[in-house]
Specification:
This protein is α/β, with parallel strands linked by helices. The chain is built from 14 helices and 14 strands. The two termini are 34 Å apart.
Length: 416
């Protein structure tokens, strides 16, 4: 994870750079919904100083000041003060872009995000080869195309990977030839060679990044201690304290799917047995429905959930997975003591489709003293952009610093 660099300003130039980064960070974190006056108060800036900083950022095509905010999410709406209205600094239409990749063993998705967190999916492809190296080559090719599309606006690439990371390398991937691969290094070398990308390529665990996205943009925003669970082919998650992921001594915490939480005993690909993901992940749902694993397992699992309303076999599979999911969540709440539990990926879909089954199993697994006021289960509202949003935040965390901003020049002003 990239830490936020507030730095210590010792000269007037450093102080200005520091305040520019603080202001732009606040615009980004506020999703482009806060007026200049509100930003001024939030950052304890003098009104004149804030005005000069906003003009500077606008002149560099990092922001544009809109006359009024777009419809804001409930968690970022604030009480407007009376008096003369001020503009709302938001993303510049030719401002910085972060490319984000959600890499899975059976597919990948690529999206683009601008300042303030607005994003859109650009590409989605299923794996048509058994080679993990070929998948990475395909990802690099698509990144090169999108890098050329956005040109010098691209400030970096964030990659969410389906594996714990240690020192930047995948240490327990689902494809054997991804073992010990530095995915950021591989993609960085390929895209820099083909498209001249100057920004960093940064990688993080997909479940950790899904939790980071919820803390920044979703249902866990403002929660002091939260547990987030992301279910795809397997199950991962993260404990968040003050909005920051607790990633462990080696950066690989949150492998909740490889804990024996549902009472099973089958061997797992990780080398253990009875792992939770065998019963509550996409593989568990497909196995319960009597289906094989061809193509994108998440797409297949979603179809089983959709069919549960009319097909008895799918309904039984959904009920089984919902119970396993709820029991595991209860065990983790007993261990981690969060205020709330966020759910994304297949976990959110299962909960929406069978809330009673999940909740019944969840409450039964809780210690007695927790049951009167159990932590709420909150399905993600970010949809397909959740993990991708977290990957983009890696890039913006690196960019929204005095050092990062010093690398930016307005695209229109750059010369050959």
């Amino acid at each position: 994870m990239v830490s936020r660099d507030e730095g210590a300003a010792t000269t007037s130039a450093e102080l200005r750079a520091h305040n520019l980064a603080r202001l732009l960070r606040a615009v980004h974190d506020g999703a482009g919904q806060l007026t200049r006056a509100e930003l001024t108060r939030q950052l304890s800036l003098a009104r004149g100083t804030a005005t000069v900083l906003v003009r500077d950022l606008a002149g560099r095509q990092l922001i544009e000041e809109l006359p009024s905010p777009a419809a804001a999410p409930a968690d970022v709406r604030v009480q407007r003060t009376r008096g003369r209205p001020t503009g709302v600094p938001s993303a510049h239409p030719r401002g910085p872009v972060a490319l984000a990749v959600d890499l899975r063993d059976d597919s990948f998705t690529l999206a683009a995000f601008e300042l303030t967190g607005r994003g859109a999916v650009l590409d989605r492809r299923e794996r048509d080869t058994a080679s993990g190296s070929a998948v990475l080559a395909d990802v690099a090719a698509r990144l090169t195309i999108r890098r050329r599309q956005f040109g010098d606006r691209v400030i970096g690439i964030g990659v969410a990977v389906p594996s714990p990371l240690s020192g930047g390398t995948m240490v327990q991937p689902t494809l054997s030839d991804w073992q010990d691969v530095d995915v950021a290094g591989v993609l960085g070398a390929a895209t820099q060679e083909e498209a001249g990308l100057a920004g960093p390529v940064l990688a993080g665990n997909d479940a950790t990044l899904a939790g980071l996205a919820e803390a920044r943009r979703g249902v866990l925003r403002g929660v002091s201690v939260a547990l987030h669970l992301h279910v795809a082919t397997g199950i991962g998650g993260v404990l968040l304290a003050g909005g920051q992921p607790v990633t462990g001594a080696r950066g690989s915490a949150g492998e909740f799917g490889h804990m024996p939480l549902a009472g099973g005993s089958d061997p797992c690909r990780c080398g253990s047995a009875g792992c939770w993901e065998l019963d509550a992940g996409a593989r568990g749902l497909l196995r319960a429905a009597g289906l094989g694993e061809r193509g994108d397992r998440m797409v297949q699992a979603t179809r089983v959930i959709a069919a549960a309303a009319d097909d008895p076999g799918s309904a039984r599979a959904l009920a089984r997975v919902a119970g396993a999911l709820g029991r595991g969540i209860g065990a983790l709440v007993n261990a981690q003591d969060p205020e709330v539990v966020g759910l994304s990926g297949l976990a959110a879909e299962v909960y929406r489709a069978a809330p009673d089954a999940v909740r019944t199993a969840y409450l039964a697994a809780l210690m007695r003293f927790r049951r009167p006021q159990p932590p709420a289960l909150l399905p993600s509202t970010l949809g397909d952009l959740g993990t991708l949003t977290g990957a983009s935040e890696l890039v913006f965390d690196a960019f929204l610093t005095p050092r990062g901003l010093s690398t930016w020049q307005p695209p229109a002003r750059k010369t050959a």
